[in-house]
Amino acid sequence: MDWMKIGQAGLLIMFIVVMFPAARHWSKNSPKAEAGDWKAALLPLAGVILFIALLISMVR
Amino acid sequence: MLKDRDYMQRAGGTQALSAQAIQESALATNKVLKNTYLLLSATLLFSALTAGISMALELPRVTYLISVGIAMVAGIFVLPRTANSSAGIGVIFLITGMLGLGLGPLLTMYLELPKGPQIIGTALGGTGTIFLALSAYTLKSQRNFNFMGGFLFAGFMVVLIAALANIFLAMPALSLALSAGIILLMSGFILFDTSRIARGEETNYIMATYGIYLAIFNIFINLLALLGIMGDD
Asked: Interface pTM (ipTM) of the complex?
């Protein structure tokens, strides 16, 4: 097996192990979304999707 | 009457004090925001410089893995311990410099593609536009995006596990989906991090810079991959 792949996998495993406590903390302690919060977050993310589609069409 | 006046004076004094506290808090938040953007600009320029050096020296592709590894170790173990001192500035420049150095061989590889320069230019402009638009949206809307924390971190864990699996599976469709997913997650992190700085919940500008820098770096790398795959006939 390519040792580059083993190196990449090692880095990712280390990152997963280190990130896990932060992920658990935030999933337990995140405040609940209020009315309109998700809409306000999804609106700019939808804009990002459309923008990326535009960028892809530009390089095609 | 005297008591009433005394009470009114005290109430007025308390109001003045709380107004002063709010003003001081707003000033401190603005200072963190200003310092974060200044340090972010400096680190991005430094990364561009080290990427340029790496390209000029024609460093091999393995540089990417080594640089990202060093940056990751420094970011996880050294930066949180030095972020409250001036040494933190040196560490953040070390991390961003290493990430720039690793970017060099990747950019050289993209430049060799038929539409390479166009792809790199588009990814660079696209990343800048996404960052500026999302930051402006968060600062203008003054919304609290803390509720996204659980979703973003859980999503990031899923993406990391899928990326780990794809190292061995090498499925192009999964690579494409992962790149798109990471761009959206990192866009979410820009909303989340900027909102935390603007609301005074993140008071350390070095850690704030690190969070936003990583989001920008990941958006750029994955936009490059997405445009590289999708731009190919």
From this structure: 0.91
